[in-house]
Design brief:
transmembrane helix; Plug_dom_sf; TonB-dependent receptor-like protein; five-stranded mixed β-sheet; Immunoglobulin-like
């Protein structure tokens, strides 16, 4: 017999408010007795934890999935919180970053969040290298959960301006004398498919920042080049081949090719349902096969026992996962003979079965209910204990939806729960013993079919180039009631930008990847269709993918630790006011002001620790502020020290398997169109070229540091001097310096000498030692020079602080001002990161006779609008004009209503 206790879902804010009001009484009564009910204790602790750690998620809709230099990336962000994905009121600031495949941040945006929504764009300069990039988005509050739960999407960016060469690479792997050998086969062609035959090529192979091979070669008559190298580390990581090909016109084109794997190894793992393989209990055994490139590879196999008796067979799905049933016997050992796609066979051991513990099985194949079974092992079944009580809890995104416990001494039970009691998304079932320790865990994905019904209707089905298109949008909820919601729309030419039906969406972004740690291959596949096979594949994913939003051990601890990152409600500037001896100045007056265009001034008083904070600020990026501190008696000889909010570190990309090794070649129609659009823009003056089309050789010359440099060797006496003109077009100084300093690499914006990666270089900014994180707050336009001291000739004068090298950064002076400088006691001036400028998508109006019809319209993104709001009848409309290119046009609308229900619809029309 099983006691049931349902906990019904409530509004997220009401839950938090309610717990805050009477949570203290519950906690006191709970800990006043040692015989507290274990289930009650778990619920109380869970609610306490979620009050301190409410979950926040973000999803970005992009206008398309790949881009070219000269394009813009348009996006809208949906920031949600709680189990029903209601638009979040936790945070008011969103960080969005464009990151390259070397984990270097190329651009950073800071955007205001209003009612859980914001939007913005990245402009891609023609100086960007082609390759795989990431768009990462997060709030400061989300940093507490970890970057695994940030929005993180891989995109492809092609440089169509300097590229006259396309590459296609394939790899073969071997093993000789215990070392891994890689053979790279590279084919060189132009955009039209003509091969580059008998062309000289130089190359180097890199792993991390280390060259492991280099050489010269020549393409054959078919444009092919073979490169062989040894992987010294034997790891399955991404490496790069950098080739320089000399063309007939004497120009040189550099190509960077990603080596996604350096072996043919396949990792196969088995996952018993619930986590335990218990002897004598029928069990679902899930499995997953992952190749060295991080993607799934299909397998099939046979399971045998130690008597070589066949007990099960299995075949993976197209994503290399699957499930089979089998009943392990006590004392037996099981192995799987696995056959790979190339016909080779490998033997892998299955987890060892145990006699104790429980099996937790869940059947969610029914239309209306979930059936949960708890089955004890033989030792538990034979136990004479009459006091053991086990508890079962089901939660989703911080809300408990089911809680129940067994009667004392009960050994097994099953329970049927209506699916309607749960929200759509991932449900975590956890089984606990009498001591409140978790025993088993099972993830289940519930589809309640509560998505919004979006209907798109165009005034025509076929159009002509440059003709106006008007589309009406109608939205209803699952009960066919009209809803007010916020939506974004992207229109692209599908003939130029081919669609991937398995692409990520607002459903996969908020319901799946936002709650799962680790890489998920083709997350959009699980929402493209709602049929038996797709749902079975989704369940296989739940059985093989872990949920780590929190650890139950942390939740059940009495001392719930405070969070490291507070929610950013708005922009703020904070710091300390101290006297010359470093002691806090209490009740000091701190004034913040700027005089860029109009004078702005605000003041505040310091607290008992000398801290000051200016909250609720709204200012755009690159605004220079001045802060002045005075004591209560108007003393001026004080120190103003600002808080530095550490930038989020950039770690290894969990979605690296999505990188495209032959990115340019797979989007040839898009590449040709983008190149034509760029050249047309240059001819017509609508685009400014930043770089020359042919290689330019720059001769070195002696660079001079600015005269007020604090370099103890004297201004300009350094191993290398970086001039201001080399620091343009970058997100920050660390980005500008990456790759420009000999013998120096940057890790998370911190410089290291390549000869000593264990300790960072010292950074001196205008004579003051600062941390590496300061680099991300400096505006490149404010830098006068950067001097690099590497050799003992220049570092010895700094004693022990010079052992790992130094960067001497000097800001501009005179009328140009300082980036971060004390120019009077108690006064500093600085440029904090403000809100990024948000542009409006330009959509030409061809019914205006003033529109220049002579300029070709070759846009790949035809229309973008991030702020479509439906009225109380659920209606909205939008209109735009087609481009010149013919083909199938694709309209994608995504959005959310005020109750957190999600919607997505795709509509197509044709242009002849």
């Amino acid at each position: 017999m099983f006691k049931l206790k349902f906990i019904y879902h409530m509004n997220f804010r009401k839950i938090v408010a309610g717990i805050l009001l009477f949570g203290g009484i519950i906690i006191i009564s709970a800990f006043s007795s040692f015989d507290i009910d274990p289930l009650q204790h778990i619920i109380i602790q869970f609610n306490r934890w979620m009050v301190v750690h409410p979950q926040e998620n973000v999803y970005l809709q992009l206008d398309k999935s790949y881009y070219a230099t000269g394009n813009d990336i348009w996006f809208k962000a949906y920031v949600t919180a709680g189990s029903n994905h209601q638009l979040s009121g936790i945070s008011g600031v969103l960080n969005v970053e464009l990151i390259d495949d070397r984990d270097s941040v190329k651009q950073r945006l800071k955007l205001p969040i209003v009612s859980g929504l914001t939007w913005g764009d990245f402009s891609l300069p023609d100086t960007l290298n082609e390759g795989n990039y990431r768009i990462r988005a997060y709030t400061n509050w989300m940093r507490n959960a970890g970057e695994e739960y940030f929005f993180d999407k891989t995109i492809t960016i092609s440089n169509v301006i300097t590229n006259q060469v396309l590459t296609e690479a394939s790899y073969n792997y071997g093993n000789q004398n215990g070392t891994q050998q890689v053979n790279a086969h590279i084919k060189y062609t132009n955009v039209d498919g003509t091969v580059y035959a008998s062309i000289p090529v130089t190359y180097q192979v890199q792993t991390g920042n280390k060259n492991i091979a280099n050489g010269k070669g020549q393409t054959d008559t078919d444009g092919n080049l073979n490169i062989n190298f040894i992987n010294p580390s034997g790891v399955n990581g991404a490496e790069r081949i950098i080739t320089d090909i000399k063309l007939a016109d004497k120009s040189s084109v550099k190509k960077i090719l990603l080596v996604k794997a350096t072996s043919a190894n396949v990792d196969v793992q088995f996952f018993p349902e619930g986590g335990n393989l218990v002897s004598g209990n029928e069990t679902k055994m899930a499995f997953k096969a992952v190749a060295a490139n991080g993607l799934g590879t299909e397998i099939k196999g046979v399971v045998t026992d130690n008597e070589n008796k066949q007990v099960a067979t299995f075949n993976s799905n197209q994503l290399a996962m699957g499930v089979f049933n089998f009943k392990p016997e006590s004392g037996k050992i099981y192995k799987a003979a696995i056959t790979y796609v190339d016909g080779s066979v490998n033997i892998v051991s299955l987890p060892t079965a145990v006699n104790t513990g429980y099996s937790l099985t869940v059947d969610d194949t029914g239309n209306d209910n979930i059936e949960v079974k708890i089955i004890p092992g033989a030792e538990v079944e034979s136990s004479t204990s009459t006091t053991e009580v086990i508890s079962l809890i089901a939660q989703s995104r911080g809300t408990i939806y089911f809680a129940g416990k067994s009667q004392a001494g009960s050994k097994s039970f099953n329970v049927v729960i209506p699916k309607s009691k749960f929200p759509t998304g991932i449900i975590q079932f956890t089984l606990f013993n009498s001591s409140g320790e978790p025993l088993n865990e099972r993830l289940v994905f519930i589809k309640n079919h509560d998505e919004l019904k979006l209907n798109l209707k165009a005034d025509k089905q076929e159009y002509t180039p440059r003709q106006k298109v008007k589309i009406e949008l109608n939205t209803k909820n699952k009960n066919d009631q009209p809803v007010v919601g916020s939506f974004s729309v992207a229109v692209t030419n599908e003939s130029i930008v081919p669609a991937d039906e398995n692409e990520s969406s607002i459903f996969s972004g908020l319901l799946l990847t936002a709650d799962i740690r680790g890489y998920i291959e083709k997350p959009g596949y699980y929402f493209a269709h709602d049929d038996e096979k797709t749902n079975a594949d989704l369940d296989a994913l739940m059985l093989t993918q872990g949920y780590h939003r929190f650890e139950w051990k942390q939740v059940l601890e009495d001392d719930i630790k405070t969070v490291a990152y507070s929610p950013e409600k708005s922009l703020q500037i904070s710091g300390h006011l101290k006297n010359l001896f470093g002691k806090p100045v209490v009740n000091g007056k701190v004034t913040l002001f700027t005089a860029n265009q109009s004078i702005f001034m605000i003041d505040t008083l310091t607290d008992s620790e000398g801290r000051f904070t200016f909250k609720n600020l709204v200012f755009k990026d690159s605004i220079r502020f001045l802060i002045q501190g005075r004591s209560a008696k108007d003393h001026k000889n004080l120190q103003v020290e600002l808080d530095n909010l550490l930038q989020q570190r950039v770690r290894e990309n969990k979605n690296a398997p999505d990188w495209q090794a032959n990115a340019v070649d797979e989007i040839s129609p898009f590449l040709k169109n983008s190149k034509a659009a760029y050249e047309s823009g240059i001819r017509n003056g609508t685009i400014n070229r930043s770089i020359a089309l042919k290689e330019v050789v720059i001769k070195d010359k002696k660079m001079q540091a600015v005269k007020n440099s604090s370099n103890l060797n004297g201004p300009g006496n350094a191993d290398q001097v970086i001039a201001p003109d080399a620091l343009q077009g970058c997100a920050d100084i660390a980005d500008c310096l990456q790759g420009r300093i000999n013998g120096v690499i940057f890790r998370n914006d911190t410089p290291f000498l390549m000869r000593n990666l264990s300790r960072p270089m010292q950074i001196i900014l205008d004579g003051v030692y600062v941390d590496g994180v300061v680099l991300s707050s400096l505006n490149p336009n404010d830098i006068g020079s950067v001097e690099v001291l590497r050799s003992i000739q220049y570092t010895s004068i700094y004693g022990g602080k010079g052992g790992n090298g130094l960067l001497i950064i000097t800001t501009k002076n005179g009328n140009e001002g300082y980036a971060y400088q004390r120019y009077a006691p108690g006064v500093i001036t600085f440029i904090p990161k403000g809100y990024s400028k948000v542009r409006e998508f330009y959509s030409p109006k061809y019914d205006d006779p003033k529109t220049n019809s002579k300029i070709p319209d070759l846009r790949s993104t035809i229309y973008w609008k991030p702020n479509i709001i439906t009225d109380k009848e659920g209606n909205a409309s939008f209109e735009f004009f087609n481009a010149d290119t013919k083909g199938n046009y694709r309209v994608v609308v995504e959005g959310i209503d005020s109750d957190g229900n999600l919607g997505r619809q795709v509509y197509r029309y044709k242009i002849d």
